[in-house]
Structure formats: C-alpha cells, structure tokens
C-alpha cells in the first residue's frame, strides 16, 4: 500500500540499514517540512539536504513544503502529511530554538502520542561534541502519532546532516516497522508453548 517492502525499491546506500536487525521496509515515503520565515526553495539548503539524503538511501519524498514559524500552519501541514497514504514519516527542520518565533516544539508537542525522548537526547549529545554546551538550546524532538513517526531537527544544514546521518537514516525503516507491527491477535499466535 503506502510503503514498500524489501525488493520493491533500490537498496539503501551509504551504509544506512533500515533497522538494527534488517527488519522494516527498505523504502519509507517521507514528508519534508522546512519551518522558516525567510527561506525559499532556492535558499532552503537544509530541506534540500534532507531530501537528497533520503533519496540516496532509497526513501522517496512524497511531500515538501516551506512554511513560516506559525503553529497553526505547522500543524495543518503535519496533519496533511499524516493523512496521506504515501507518507510514513514527517521530517521537519527549523523552529527548534528559544526565540519567540521558534514554535515547532510547542506545535508538535500537542499531537505526539508516543514521544521518543532518546532522539532529542542523542541529538544533543552528538551536537555537544561539535558545538559544546550550546547544544542544550536545541529542542530537537521525535515521536509517533497515528502510526507514523515525526522528527523535528534544527534548521542549520550541519544539524540536519548530523541528525540524518547518525540517527534518522540508520533507524527509519525499523521505526516504521515497529509502528506497523501488529500485536498477536490471540494467545495462540504467541511463541509461548503451553503444555
């Protein structure tokens, strides 16, 4: 349906695996949203970097938009992405800092059903190695809602590259696999043996 199993798309490149044990779809269709009051398609190097890295790893980009730092606009586009069958992950860049106009965290926080705090923790840990204690100012976050995953990262191209290379791409397929995995329909379908 909306996502492709192994063999239906070209294999992931650049050493990125779909999951730590190889489970999950080889190709995960994504939405890419750039949150910025000033960027255009010509100047959106971070949004372009996300798209290029996704495509190089075999993940199609089904939706791409640049929108201002306004909570209602952000939520509208995220909900639009979540409603599409050809979107299984939404990746946002920008609006994660502390300025008055940085509202991505607040917008997403209200719709995340299952937070993934480890994403933000790991991103800040990796950022600390590059920029020191200023990494604490990043409010990068991730979580699941409506059976799909949302990642929110800072808008700098370097931050985007770090998040994609070290965190998102290595686990994207596995995260989707976990979200799509069905619980056993009855006790008889489990691996437990009864006498």
Domain tally: 1
User: Which fold name is given in CATH as the topology?
Assistant: Molybdenum Cofactor Biosythetic Enzyme, Chain A
How many beta-strand elements?
A: 6
CATH class category name: Alpha Beta
Class inferred from helices and paired strands: alpha/beta
CATH architecture descriptor name: 3-Layer(aba) Sandwich
Q: Describe the biggest sheet?
A: 6 strands, mixed
Helical percentage:
25-40%
> Can you tell me the overall shape?
globular
List the helices and strands in order. EHEHEHEHEEH
Question: Would you give an account of this structure?
Answer:
The chain is of the alpha/beta class. The protein has one domain: Molybdenum Cofactor Biosythetic Enzyme, Chain A (3-Layer(aba) Sandwich). Helices cover about 35% and strands about 15% of the residues. It is built from 5 helices and 6 strands; from the N terminus they run E-H-E-H-E-H-E-H-E-E-H. It has helices at about 45-55, 70-85, 105-110, 115-130, 155-180; strands at about 30-35, 60-65, 90-95, 115, 140-145, 150-155. Strands 2-1-3-6-5-4 form a 6-stranded mixed beta sheet, with helices on both faces. A hairpin with a 2-residue loop joins strand 5 and strand 6 (about 150-155). Helix 1 (about 45-55) crosses helix 5. The model is unreliable at about 1-20 and about 185-195 (pLDDT under 50).
Q: What is the element layout, followed by pairings?
A:
Blueprint: E1 30-35, H1 45-56, E2 61-67, H2 71-83, E3 89-93, H3 104-109, E4 114-115, H4 117-131, E5 141-145, E6 148-153, H5 157-180
Helix pairs in contact: 1-5, 4-5
């Amino acid at each position: 349906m909306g996502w492709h199993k192994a063999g239906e798309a070209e294999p992931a490149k650049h050493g990125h695996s779909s999951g730590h044990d190889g489970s999950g779809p080889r190709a995960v269709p994504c939405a890419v949203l750039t949150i910025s009051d000033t960027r255009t398609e010509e100047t959106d190097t971070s949004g372009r970097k996300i798209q290029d890295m996704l495509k190089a790893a075999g993940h199609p980009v089904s939706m791409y938009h640049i929108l201002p730092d306004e909570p209602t606009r952000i939520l509208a586009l995220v909900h639009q992405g979540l409603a599409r069958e050809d979107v299984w992950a939404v990746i946002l860049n920008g609006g994660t800092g502390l300025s008055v106009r940085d509202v991505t965290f607040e917008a997403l926080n209200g719709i995340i059903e299952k937070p993934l705090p480890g994403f933000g923790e790991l991103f800040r840990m990796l950022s600390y190695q590059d920029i020191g204690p200023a990494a604490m100012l990043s409010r990068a976050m991730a979580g699941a809602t409506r059976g799909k995953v949302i990642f929110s990262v800072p808008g700098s191209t370097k931050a985007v590259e770090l998040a994609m290379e070290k965190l998102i791409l290595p686990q994207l397929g596995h995260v989707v696999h976990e979200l799509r995995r069905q619980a056993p329909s009855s006790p008889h379908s489990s691996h437990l043996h009864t006498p």
